[in-house]
Amino acid sequence: MMGDQEEANSVDKRINNNEESEVVRKGPWTMEEDLILINYIAIHGEGVWNNLARSAGLKRTGKSCRLRWLNYLRPDVRRGNITPEEQLLIMDLHSRWGNRWSKIARQLPGRTDNEIKNYWRTRIQKKVKDGESVDCSSQIVNDEGSSSHTGGLEEVMAQPSYPIYSNIANPHEAYAPAYSESINPSETYLSGEDFWAVQF
DNA sequence: AAAGGCACCAACCGCGGTCGG
DNA sequence: TCCGACCGCGGTTGGTGCCTT
């Protein structure tokens, strides 16, 4: 999706020419940046995103790194093709919890809050607006007090059969399965071709 | 074939919460 | 107890590709 012209505009906070300190890249991520982030997390693990960004030599904010990792690079992330079952679940959970996207996302293995949010806004919300049979928007409940007494689906979905993020605690392990087919497991670094060949 | 509009999605921004010093 | 840094979440924006006219 992202074009190739980002090099031209992505460095938009150039405070001075001291390239070591004050340049923050914005906009679409390049393959090189992805690889740097992936390899760094494979070795050091995720978390402490500001430090990570600095230590990895990425001219990105910690926030940006975190977002990129969680929404796109994480090995267990699934993108595209929301199934009818997932759609139903999204609608149901949204009717219970409202716009608690991260909470909803935790009930959908491999889905991210950003993806669900986008999906909702572009597809489901449109249907709701058009007055179709999706009737969840009218029954949003106050979430904060609801988690302990909504019961039903929430409890079901809280079962261990939804191991969201559970393997992330050890990023080495989290990483291995997704790439083990084409990459020597003993090798921590990935080449660009390795990564993109596996991903797409 | 070209232009305009629309849909989708990646990424940024702002805010609130949490934690450590 | 206060303050600053960091993290996570939800809302929003901008770019790209597809579809329609």
Describe the structure.
This protein has helices spanning 6-9, 31-44, 49-55, 62-73, 84-97, 101-105, 113-129, 153-157, 171-179, 192-199, and strands at 11-14, 23-25. It has a two-stranded antiparallel sheet. The protein contains ten helices and two strands, in the order αββααααααααα. The model is unreliable at 1-21, 134-189 and 196-200 (pLDDT under 50). The chain folds into two domains: 6-76 and 169-199, Homeodomain-like (Arc Repressor Mutant, subunit A); 84-157, Homeodomain-like (Arc Repressor Mutant, subunit A). With 200 residues, the chain is mainly alpha-helical. 48% of the residues lie in helices and 4% in strands. Helix 3 (49-55) packs across helix 4 (62-73). The two termini are 13 Å apart. It binds a DNA duplex (21 and 21 nucleotides) through helix 4, helix 6 and helix 7.
